[in-house]
Automatic annotation (TrEMBL):
The keyword Signal does not apply. GO terms for cellular component: plasma membrane. Belongs to the CobS family. Its cofactor is Mg(2+). Its main location: membrane. InterPro entries: CobS (IPR003805). The chain crosses the membrane at residues 48-78, 111-132, 138-159, 180-202. It is an enzyme of class 2 (transferase). It is a multi-pass membrane protein. This is Adenosylcobinamide-GDP ribazoletransferase. Keywords: Cell membrane, Cobalamin biosynthesis, Magnesium, Membrane, Transferase, Transmembrane, Transmembrane helix. Joins adenosylcobinamide-GDP and alpha-ribazole to generate adenosylcobalamin (Ado-cobalamin). Also synthesizes adenosylcobalamin 5'-phosphate from adenosylcobinamide-GDP and alpha-ribazole 5'-phosphate. It comes from Antarctobacter heliothermus.
């Protein structure tokens, strides 16, 4: 596997998970399945961008809550609200009467009351937690951002696709034994950020892992597997949990 091919896979991951311009990929372009290893790496520029805005707002003397909302707005703008959309759709799907109905609700572009309420609580919790962080907490931003996208990758590999189409199907691993090497870049980057952050990293990662497990359990029980919305819900749920526990431990 050449370096250029790996870079193309990283660019594809950035194209799918952000709104950052990545140019055009030359043929033959990689598939989402091949590029899924790079999903966690997308968290590095996202985390640093959010921290940069947060620290910059703090340097201007703005209130902590304003700094927090500025950072969250940056993440939403850079991702196009992709994970928020999945989180809201997954919450709305909880009101379905059976698996088929839940998947139908989640595909509806309209947001229902469950989704709205879930987003209010998620954004509110994240903002209140971020407002308590020091401006120097760049390693915490990177850790939460990378680890939450590693959670997406893990769910993508351990849960079967719940649909015959969609992002969850296109990015799902090929049949055969699971390869931990696909998870390695995200796990290594998370470990690096954890070492810089220090003792606070352990409870943060533990809480994020538990949250991811709960999302996975609910997705398997209610949908039979993962979809793009489930992946987005896992990312945002793990990220929000990470912010809350980080604020409690720093």
């Amino acid at each position: 596997m050449t370096l250029r091919r790996r870079l193309d896979e990283l660019r594809l991951a950035m194209m799918m998970l952000t709104r950052l311009p990545m140019g055009r990929l030359a043929d033959p372009a990689p598939t989402l399945t091949q590029a899924r290893w790079a999903f966690p790496l997308v968290g590095l520029p996202m985390g640093l961008a959010a921290w940069g805005v947060f620290a910059g707002a703090a340097a201007l003397g703005l209130p902590g809550l304003t700094c927090a909302f500025a950072a969250l707005a940056t993440l939403a703008a850079l991702t196009g609200g992709l994970h928020h959309d999945g989180f809201a759709d997954f919450a709305d799907g909880g009101g379905g009467r059976d698996r088929a109905h839940r998947l139908e609700i989640m595909r509806d572009s309209r947001v229902g009351s469950y989704g709205v309420i879930a987003l209010i609580f998620a954004v509110g919790l994240a903002a209140s937690a971020l407002s308590a962080l020091p401006a120097s907490a760049w390693a915490g931003f990177v850790l939460v951002s990378v680890a939450s996208r590693t959670a997406m990758l893990i769910l993508l590999d351990i849960l079967p696709p719940a649909r015959v189409d969609g992002l969850g199907r296109m990015a799902a691993r090929a049949r055969g034994p699971r390869s931990l090497t696909v998870w390695a870049p995200g796990l290594v980057m998370s470990l690096g950020a954890a070492l810089v952050l220090g003792p606070a990293a352990l409870p943060v990662l533990t809480a994020m892992a538990l949250t991811t497990a709960l999302v996975a359990r609910q997705a398997r029980r209610s949908l039979g597997g993962q979809t793009g919305d489930v992946l987005g819900a896992a990312q945002l749920a793990a990220e929000t949990t990470g912010w809350v526990v980080l604020a409690a431990t720093l």
